[in-house]
Amino acid sequence: MDEKDRLILNIVQKGFPLEKEPFSAIGKQVGLEAEEVIDRLRRLKDAGIIRRLGAFFEPKKLGYVSTLCAARCPSDKEEFFISTVNERPEVTHNYRRRGEYNIWFTIIAPSKEEIESIIADLKKKTGVEDIISMEATKRFKIDARFEV
Amino acid sequence: MKLSTKEISLIKLLQDDFPLEKRPFLLLGKACQMEEEQVLEILYRWKKEGLMRKFGAALRHHRVGYNKNALVVWAVPSPLIDQVGKALAQKKWVSHCYERKPPYLNRYNLFTMVHFPLKKKENIIEEMVKASGISDYIILETIEELKKTSMRYF
User: How far A106 CA sits from the closest chain B CA (Å)?
Assistant: First the structure.
């Protein structure tokens, strides 16, 4: 990654230009041709530095509900539990954490009932009984941008 | 919010990889029977209305120097939740800050996701304690990312 890559990454995280020729617009800001911006973005994507370029929607406004779940999973069940959880397309994030509850994941689904039934299904399939679901009641911030 | 069939197909397309082409919005428009201008208008509107939280790139943060992260949960007395939530949200290391119910372990109701270079951990937590005035917290360090994707709607 060179200085131009860094500049481009900061721009596409903060204010991707919503105009007809966005890559020319980015190019103007960093002193490159559109083609070169495109090449660099493709390279950053292929290298895995960019996870995704596109639109990020607000689940609530699309009629979806979300929750954060924490599971207390015994180590002998961990592998199966993780693969069962990850299999669900409604689970978007999953992390192993240090703490009493060791597996933490998010669920997004069209209704509260659906979320409950997903959790019930996970319990039944894996035998992991202690899964808590904590819904967000107030949001103070969501902004996963990283200055590079 | 009522979405048209065309708008729903645009949402579906925007969940895939964005076309790295000179006129990407023209291409997207073609794929869902819309003019380029119309696509841009809709995107502006969605952004204004908050239906679209962000348009742009999400990075793999551990690849750009933010190699550690933790979920830090705080026990905040309910009358203070707005004040503390806002104070912690201002910190640049904090990407997410939510009040959740029920509280974790019946106690920890404010959730902050914190990203940092490893050597800065102590300072950052200290700074957050100072900003929040809350000393009852747990650091739930991330040991491993097991899955991270974007939701596919519709």
Answer: 10
User: Is A98 close to B140, i.e. CB distance below 8 A?
Assistant: yes
Per-residue pLDDT tens over the stretch B95-147 = 999 999 999 999 999 999 999 887 787 899 999 999 999 999 999 999 999 99
Q: Is A144 within the bounds of a domain?
A: no
Q: What is the ipTM of this complex?
A: 0.89
Secondary structure (3-state) at B107:
coil
Same domain for A104 and A65:
yes
Are the beta carbons of A12 and B64 closer than 8 angstroms?
no
- Residues A34 and A101 occupy one common structural domain: no
Is A12 within 8 Å of B147 when comparing Cβ atoms?
no
Residue A145 lies inside a defined structural domain of this protein: no
CATH 3.40.50.2300 given to domain B61-141: no
For A99-133, letters b (16+ CB in 10 Å) and e give bebbbbbbbbbeeeeebeebbeebeeebebeebeb
Structure tokens at A99: 């703490």
User: Which of B25, B82, B99 is nearest residue A20 as measured by Cβ atoms?
Assistant: B25
Nearest residue in chain A measured CA to CA from B27? A20
Q: Hey, what amino acid is at A83?
A: S
Q: Which domain holds residue A35?
A: 3-46
Query: Which of A95, A98, A100, A118 best tests the B interface by mutation, with the highest count of B CBs <10 A?
Result: A95
- Least CB-CB distance to B86: which of A19, A140, A143? A140
Q: How is chain B split into domains, by residue range?
A: 5-49, 61-141
Candidates B18, B50, B142; nearest CB to A54: B18
Whether residues A57 and B18 touch (CB distance < 8 A) is answered with no
Give residue B65's pLDDT band: very low, low, confident or very high (50, 70, 90).
Answer: confident
Residues A84, A129, single domain; the answer is: yes
Quick check: is A51 in a domain? no
The Cα B42–Cα B38 span in angstroms is: 6
